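Dear support,

I submitted the protein below through the web form. The confirmation email said the job was done, but the results page showed an empty box. After a refresh the structure appeared. I'm attaching both so you can tell me whether what I see now is the final result or a partial one.
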Amino acid sequence: MDDQRDTTDRFLPRFDAAGLVTAIVTDAETHKLLMVAHMNAEAIERTRATGQAHFWSRSRAALWRKGETSGNELTIVEMRVDCDQDALLLRVTPVGPACHTGRRSCFYRRVEGDDSLTFLADDAQG
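What the results page shows now:
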């Protein structure tokens, strides 16, 4: 172990070559997986400063606050970092659905053995 990130008590995110870390988002009350996104240093800073989840959109190459247009905000309850500090876990209180499709979670389909997808009833729209 030549990197102190595994043992330090300091927050030292390990950004990838694009300057991003993966952010896993769960409902703090139900523990339901809601979404996976990416954060750069500015997104982390704004999230910590405001208590609202901010992310980096790789497709738009822009910073965005979850809910800025939909109203479906994610209020931070707790931010955790994994052992080598290259992934974050955001425990949140969601206001409305987390997925842009209107579903509670972005993970609303199960992959079947024949490569078909089954839509899960507990993540229905609305």
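Response: this is the final, complete result; the empty box was a page-load delay. The chain has one domain: 4-100.
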